[in-house]
Amino acid sequence: MKSVKILNLLLVIVLLMAGCMLSKKNVIETKPQTICPVMGGKINKAVYADYEGKRAYFCCGGCVNKFQKDPARYVKKLEDKGVTLEEASKAVHKDGSSQGTEKGSGKHRATGGCGGCGG
Asked: For residue 83, what are the CA distances in angstroms to 4, 7, 48, 86?
């Protein structure tokens, strides 16, 4: 009888632990990029830079230039906010085309400046 109680107690403990591990609190929610990592403005998907296989979007070309000076810093800034950057090789442009790039290539398309970043 005593062993049945111990087994039941162990079963309850295991089920509680499993429930805690599956709870929503432990799930890291990710979200797509909507703000420029440099200036914090709304992104323009025509203005981007690829870094280590990830594509970051910006509000303007001047922000791309700042990003290129320390890309790891800006990627970390976005990821710390729960943003998941697109894979550069899978990114699709407004015209429906996609462009693959090499890891760390830093390829980018930059146009104009926003005024706030000096671009």
From this structure: 48, 44, 15, 10
**pLDDT by residue (tens digit) across 23-51?**
555 556 679 999 999 999 999 999 999 99
Read off the tokens for 51: 């870094």
28-to-22, 24, 81, 90 alpha-carbon distances in Å: 11, 8, 11, 23
Per-residue pLDDT tens for 65-105? 999 999 999 999 999 999 999 998 877 655 444 443 333 34
More confident residue, 108 or 116: 116
Distance between CA atoms of 103 and 100, rounded to whole angstroms? Answer: 10
What span, in angstroms and rounded, lies between the C-alpha atoms of 55 and 11? 46
